[in-house]
Amino acid sequence: MGTMSDEPAPHESPDAPPRISPSPVRRDERGTWTLTSHADVQGAALDDRTFSNAASRFLQVPNGLDGPTHTAYRALVEEFFTAHRMDAVEPELRRVSAELVEALDVPGSLDAVEAGARYAGRAQSVWLGWRADLEEDLLAWMRDNHAATRSGDRARTAEVAERFDAIIRSLLAERRGVAGVPVDITAELMNTTVLGKPLREEEIVSILRNWTGGDLGSMALCAGVVCAYLADHPEVQTRLRNGVSDREFDAVVDEILRIDDPFVANRRVATADVCLGGQQIAAGDRLSLHWRAANRDPKIFDDPDAFDPDAHAPYNLVYGIGKHVCPGRPLATLELRVFVRALLAATSAIESDPERSREREQPPVGGYAVVPLRLR
Question: What span, in angstroms and rounded, lies between the C-alpha atoms of 158 and 164?
Answer without folding.
Answer: 10
